[in-house]
Design a protein that fits this description.
alpha+beta; Thiol Ester Dehydrase, Chain A; 3 helices; elongated
């Protein structure tokens, strides 16, 4: 479960989902068991009351860990037997305002048996303050089944 740290293209369909790309999320870096995503937030990411919609932050955390698991399992294996989120526990700590850069890192804790687990953390780039943390569990089906 090891791969080299590198910067990658956001439009790589093998790694980045269409939905993640639709939000404007960019894949910044991937390393041994982790993925870092970034998003320059804008008015299109806000809720009616102002501030970046919490769903954007949660989606980025889910996507970051999902991508990290995909890379850890291997692209071919993941394509044949896709994993899926079955549980997400998140704490939203601080607000994000439109115009702020959001950084999310997902870190794999374990991939084994039928489950994969990990954590994700979201921070504002401007002050490096944590805005949300989460723990996620994914189901990892057997290859070909």
């Amino acid at each position: 479960m090891s791969f080299h740290s590198e910067h990658v293209q956001t439009d790589d369909p093998e790694v980045v989902s269409a939905f993640t790309a639709f939000l404007g999320v960019e894949l910044d870096e991937m390393g041994d068991g982790f993925v870092r995503l970034v998003l320059d937030t804008s008015e299109r990411h806000t809720r009616l009351e102002g501030g970046v919609h919490e769903g954007v932050v949660l989606t980025m955390m889910d996507s970051a860990l999902g991508m990290a698991i995909r890379l850890a399992r291997g692209l071919e294996v993941s394509a044949e037997a896709p994993h899926a989120t079955i549980e997400m526990n998140a704490s939203l700590i601080r607000a994000v305002q439109p115009g702020e850069r959001l950084i999310v890192e997902g870190r794999v804790s374990e991939v084994g048996g039928l489950l994969a687990t990990g954590e994700a953390e979201a921070r504002r780039a401007s002050d490096d303050e944590v805005v949300a943390v989460s723990r996620l569990t994914f189901i990892v089906p057997n290859r070909g089944g």
